[in-house]
């Protein structure tokens, strides 16, 4: 579940991977990494996502504050893969067709967009994202939810979006301001995005 609560820190661990090794990385995360995190008292939940093009895997995790997700240990077996890009985040705005926003294993498409910027420009990017999230229209044209996160170090903003299908996502790229050729973030941030599916979930051990 995605929440706006200030009680939680969010972690995104983004792994680049060769397509032929994507499933092996998912298996390592499932059987060795996530059980390790479940033993941490501050752990709340985590979801593993695989990119549709086979070149990325990322873990979206939630932790009770004041614990920082980037301080969580990585399983030794992950040394066989590329090192992850790790970010500690906080949610600052979210819109959804239905509340609460659930992260569920299945065929729905997740869009993870990463905006990189100078720390001095993060505040402006947050203001823009807060304005543009309503124009994107969660609950319309296949967009189920959109949630923006700011990185604690000031250098990034992430959008975690949920879509009914890849076709629905492609449609918004034709919309003014969301077209990569004329984006609303031009001059402020650099953007990279990939499409994913949720393949595994873990919750705090009771």
Outline:
By secondary structure, this protein is of the alpha+beta class.
Please explain how this structure is put together.
- This protein is an alpha+beta fold.
- It has one domain (8-203): 2-Layer Sandwich (Alpha-Beta Plaits).
- Helix content is 19%, strand content 38%.
- It contains three helices and eight strands.
- It has an eight-stranded antiparallel β-barrel with strand order 1-3-2-8-5-7-6-4.
- Strand 6 (143-151) and strand 7 (156-163) form a beta hairpin.
- The longest helix is centred in the first third of the chain and has 17 residues, at 22-38.
- The model has no long low-confidence stretch (mean pLDDT 93).
Written as H for each helix and E for each strand, in order along the chain, the element string is EHEEEEHEEHE
Shape category: globular
Roughly how many Å is the radius of gyration? 16 Å
Give me the count of strands: 8
Mind describing the biggest β-sheet? 8 strands, antiparallel, barrel
What does the secondary structure layout of this molecule look like, with pairings?
Elements: E1 8-16, H1 22-38, E2 43-51, E3 56-64, E4 85-96, E5 109-116, H2 122-136, E6 143-151, E7 156-163, H3 166-172, E8 190-203
Antiparallel strand pairs: 1-3, 1-4, 2-3, 2-8, 4-6, 5-7, 5-8, 6-7
What key attributes describe this structure?
206 residues, alpha+beta, Alpha-Beta Plaits, eight-stranded antiparallel barrel, 3 helices, globular
């Amino acid at each position: 579940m995605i929440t706006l609560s200030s009680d939680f820190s969010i972690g995104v661990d983004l792994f680049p991977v060769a397509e032929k090794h994507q499933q092996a990385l998912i298996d390592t995360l499932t059987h060795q990494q996530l059980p390790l995190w479940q033993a941490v008292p501050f752990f709340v939940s985590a979801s593993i996502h695989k990119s549709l093009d086979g070149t990325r895997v990322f873990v979206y995790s939630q932790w009770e504050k004041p614990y920082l997700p980037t301080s969580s240990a990585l399983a030794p077996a992950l040394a066989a893969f590329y090192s992850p890009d790790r970010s500690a985040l906080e949610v600052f705005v979210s819109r959804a067709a239905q509340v609460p926003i659930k992260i569920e294993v299945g065929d729905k498409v997740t869009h993870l967009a990463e905006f990189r910027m100078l720390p001095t420009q993060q505040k402006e990017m947050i203001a823009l994202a807060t304005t543009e999230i309503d124009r994107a229209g969660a609950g319309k044209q296949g967009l189920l939810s959109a949630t923006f996160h700011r990185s604690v170090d000031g250098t990034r903003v992430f959008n975690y979006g949920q879509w009914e299908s890849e076709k629905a996502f492609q449609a918004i790229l034709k919309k003014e301001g969301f077209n990569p050729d004329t984006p609303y973030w031009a001059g402020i941030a650099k953007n990279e995005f990939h499409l994913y599916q949720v393949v595994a979930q873990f919750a705090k051990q009771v």
